[in-house]
Known about the structure:
With 247 residues, the chain is an alpha/beta fold. The protein has one domain: 3-Layer(aba) Sandwich (Rossmann fold). The chain is built from 7 helices and 10 strands. The protein has helices at residues 54-61, 84-94, 110-121, 125-138, 154-166, 184-199, 211-214; strands at 10-23, 26-39, 43-47, 69-74, 77-78, 95-99, 172-176, 204-207, 219-224, 227-233. A 6-stranded mixed beta sheet has the order 6-7-8-3-9-10, with helices on both faces. Strands 2-1-4-5 form a 4-stranded antiparallel beta sheet, with helices on one face. Helix 6 (184-199) links the parallel strand 7 (172-176) and strand 8. Helix 3 (110-121) crosses helix 4, helix 4 (125-138) crosses helix 5 and helix 5 (154-166) packs parallel to helix 6. The longest helix is centred in the C-terminal third of the chain and has 16 residues, at 184-199. The radius of gyration is 18 Å and the shape is globular.
Amino acid sequence: MSNAMNTSDTILDIRDVTRTYFMGDQEVNALRGISLSIKRGEYVAIMGPSGSGKSTLMNTIGCLDVPTSGTYRLENDLVNEKSEDELADIRNKKIGFVFQTFNLVPRISVFQNIELPLIYKGVSKRERRKIVNQVIDDVGLSDRAQHKSNELSGGQRQRVAIARALVCNPSIILADEPTGNLDSSTGREIMEILNALHKQGNTIILVTHEDEIAAHAHRVVRLRDGLIESDTVTKSVHLATTDSAVS
Length: 247
């Protein structure tokens, strides 16, 4: 599944975002004034050592957390002014999550795991069946549709997680260390799927600490001490709907 794409469109824009936590009486400045724009159709890796703020930035992008100050617009919608219910709605409709730990429900089938976001969205049973069968086929798991997730290998579980991320045709696919629990060979297979999804026009934001994984992206944003240390375009991308490279 893919999104209509124009790389001149900014899909998300973060301006002067800070995030401060309090641990007891200690103040922790996880983000210290981050500004970042990502265009529709980009493939971006966010990197940084432990404590750099990359997880906090991921949670902000994914609407799992809100900034202490600054603004976050997703498709020109001001996210940081939303209620908890509105944030949950944005997460379900606009962001496809792929987690290192898969986050699948173990005692229901692959089909049912993938179907869950569509149920929350209120999609009819007939339409759900059509969409789920398509994304299961896209990730190569048609023969595992009725297996329970705890009967699958790690690579198969991550394929299910990717399929679940795709069913609502999200604005962004947000992948947090998607190969972290996989062996090298299976990890390469998962990255090939993400690469193919990007070629179809999906916007992918990849959070990783591994240079080998970040190398699949076309832009690498490195964080340190809650600030952007560097923001580098690593590959020029020519997409079917545009003659412009991502910049």
